[in-house]
Amino acid sequence: MTRAATTTLRRTPRLAALAMLAALLAAGCGDTAQLQLRDGIGAQPQLPPPKKTLLPTVHVAEATGWPAGAAPTTAPGTTVVRFAEGLDHPRWLHVLPNGDVLVAETNAPPRPQEGQGLKGWVMQQVMKRAGAGTPSANRITLLRDADGDGVAEQRSVFAEGLNSPFGMALVGSSFYVANADALVRYAYTEGAQQLQGPPQKVADLPGGPRNHHWTKSLIASPDGSKLYAGVGSNSNVAENGMAEEDRRATILEIDTRTGAQRVFASGLRNPVGMAWEPTGRTLWVAVNERDEIGSDLVPDYMTSVRDGGFYGWPYSYFGQHVDERVQPPRPDLVQQAIVPDYALGPHTASLGLAWSGGNQLPPAFSSGMFVGQHGSWNRKPRSGYRVIFVPFTAGKPAGEPIEVLTGFVNGQGEAQGRPVGVAIDARGGLLVADDVGNIVWRVTGSAAPQSTAPGTVSR
């Protein structure tokens, strides 16, 4: 065989992948939604039959970032400012008791098994287009607004040398970080701008060379005795076998004293944001559902979490709707599957979740959950790319969601930003981590004092 022929053969897989990528990104690939987005929202979303297509629907908003001085559109009666900018892929937020704001600047760890094969390589290119292809900064940054003007004027490295950090929690004088493969603990002193000493490993978390859903979210129990870690699945619908899914698609309960852990709830494909609803002292979670069965399926959701509850993945979705792609089937588990409380729309990538308590936004936002919707890749037209508020009454969702921040996708279909984590700060502002804009936004009521720094927009 000639050298030219050998080179051609070596190039063939990459050329085929490029051809597939071009086809996926071309107009008309996959399917188009037949329902309105609102039809997939609420306690009883519409769930049409699954659609199978030769190529998955790919409709990505290319990441470009925000122009100078630009900002999202806000809800009536609210204002948004750039609390901090120039960050490196800010994903998750935690507010300390003294008002300091922590932001995890992070991205996926090396995952040598995740991008294997033609489809794997194509999906890597799609995610890069969406802004998820940069190396992880592997640090947590502290932001301090000492003068109270709504913009952080102090910044310091709080912790570094981590492994794709995501979830954070403070219990007493112990500060916990959920890395991509382990829960670690530091000693913390109030007001400290940097953690000292190497962290102590508390518990292993599911990781490995595939680590499909690498983010590990974290929240402490009200009494501080337990931590709850959200661990996503290692696949879309267990296509790599259930042996790859040990302790995955779960919320793990971890004892803060001993590190002992157990599965608190399962069948949750990718449980990310968690928050306590104070009326019933109930844990709630935002969950990303499965892909590749149509633009109208499956709605992401938020739900209260029952100890020992099973929520369907991978065998079924939204209760007893069987996913026939999963073999062998498990009708026994399907019958146990709990119907989620509230659908958040198909493919919205609902990640951030924060209870509204203590916020200083208008009265319409006084009781409910704020949700950061990172945005779809597997739906046409796009969904998500916004922050919404779901009102609650008597501890349960009640009514239609209210848009808090929109405008993350511009008129050319480019993603200027993508919202991820959300949190209420010590002064009652809503903080939003934007991992494409590399900004933390701060939303308050229009009457609240605000900085006149560039990026301030009122509606």
Descriptive report:
This protein is mainly β and 459 residues long. The chain is built from three helices and 30 strands. It has helices at residues 3-25, 117-129, 331-336, and strands at residues 41-42, 73-74, 78-85, 90-95, 101-105, 139-144, 154-159, 168-171, 174-178, 182-187, 200-204, 216-220, 226-231, 250-255, 261-266, 270-277, 282-288, 299-304, 316-317, 321-322, 342-346, 350-355, 368-373, 386-393, 396-397, 402-406, 419-424, 430-434, 439-445, 457-458. The strands form seven sheets. Strands 2, 22, 23, 24, 25 and 26 form a six-stranded antiparallel β-sheet that branches. Strands 1-21-18-17-16 form a five-stranded antiparallel β-sheet, with no helix packed on it. The protein has a five-stranded antiparallel β-sheet with strand order 27-28-29-3-30, with no helix packed on it. Helix 1 (3-25) packs across helix 2. The model is unreliable at 1-11, 24-28 and 448-459 (pLDDT under 50).
